[in-house]
Amino acid sequence: MQLGTLALGALLLCGGALAAPAGIIDLQANRQPLRAAKNPAAIALIPADYHFAVPGKLTVAVASENSPPLALFAEDNKTPIGSDPDIARLVADSLGLELNLVPTSWEDWPLGITAGKYDAAIFNIAVTRLRKTRFDFATYRVDTLGFYVKSTSKITAINRPQDVAGLRVIVGSGTNQENILLGWDQQNRANGLPAVQPIYVTDDAAANLSIQSGRADAYFGPHSTGAYKAALTGKTKMVGIGPSVAYVAVTSKKGNGLVNAINAAINGVIVSGEYASVLDRWGEHDEKVESSVINPPGIGD
């Protein structure tokens, strides 16, 4: 994606009201990293027996696919930028560590964390009951899910299970939005309504092509990425939000104690203001949290 300035004019439909436009995202300016000071209190919480994946560095898995504004590559096609890399840098700085960002696939981060390949993943990962059995979480954002359709689509609203009956919906495999969609489909079938057809694509380009060509009726995924694309191209529009809001969290291996230091690091930059600067410059001001929480109630609890 070419660097430049993006006007985010997409509106968030929530509770029957429209929020204000998200403003301007200057990708060229946002390539410049935001930094944080060392946080002695957070550093003191790093377990004495913890071994970092790369000594002296915080190794963080981030998305390898362009998912702006969460993660994308700069114009050199190799430098990760976006709100998730920015949060990773603030955490690393706070812990007195060099940041080692590793772009990878969604399927790779769970095994990578479990095997010690990554210290953490910052990947728009929502907290769920099942995931908490294997990982620890320190929250940093609210996760709002949105339904998007082609701008010329006759679909005007998707807010209830019956609204997706008979539709072809693009959704990510193994995601919370997939669980929601399949749950709605189960309710519809029990009520005699037509089945939904989940469509799984390999990348964002394939998803866009499916929507624009008519092979898919809707896309269901993170609001921030959907709003970004809608504002950038004008070819899609938001027609509804998911039925529940979850927390997105920095994810680490269960029980190794690193989550306490990460949590303290996030709360430190919330207080000092760098956290708000990150979300503001990426148009995610409506997804801020007031404080980071360790392993809060998640989807399925």
From TrEMBL:
InterPro entries: Solute-binding_3/MltF_N. Residues 1-19 form the signal peptide. The keyword Cytoplasm does not apply. Residues 57-286 form the Solute-binding protein family 3/N-terminal domain. This is Sulfate starvation-induced protein 7. Pfam families: SBP_bac_3 (PF00497). Keywords: Signal. SUPFAM superfamilies: Periplasmic binding protein-like II. The lineage of its organism: Bacteria, Pseudomonadati, Pseudomonadota, Gammaproteobacteria, Enterobacterales. Belongs to the bacterial solute-binding protein 3 family.
